[in-house]
Amino acid sequence: MVAVFLAINRVDLAQKLVAQTRAWCEDVPIAQLAEAWTRLFAGGSKYGEASSIFDELAQASSVSSSRLLTAQAVCRMHLAQFPEALELLQEALEKEANAPDTLANLVVCAGHAGLPQETRSRHLAQLRHAAPAHPFVVGLDAKATEFDAAAAKLGSQ
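Request: output the structure for the sequence above.
Response:
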């Protein structure tokens, strides 16, 4: 239910559900994961708290997953810790080479970290190949089309 509330931008309802859940199963990993995602969606000062929860889950887990590493990286990006985020995303790609969300976040993080355009283009090409219908790719293509139309309109004036 927390995932559903977050998907429809009802962080308030997700927070209430997490609080209720914490009362009876505080140390259960799925409850901790729901709490971390809710704090990540809440933003602001909650980014650090979400990062701590994801870090704790990664250390406690016998097997860290690509998704968990990507979640840690997203927190690091929100905290402007781009070198650390890049390391986590690279580690996530080692576990799952074509994970679309990892690749999308790697493209964004590479831009913020100031990596060369060639590196960002390579990651974007890998994402386009792995998941051409990923929302990041679709949104980027839509913005490129809008830009081209605006440029053509201004060029004809």
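Residues 13 and 148 are 40 Å apart (CA to CA).
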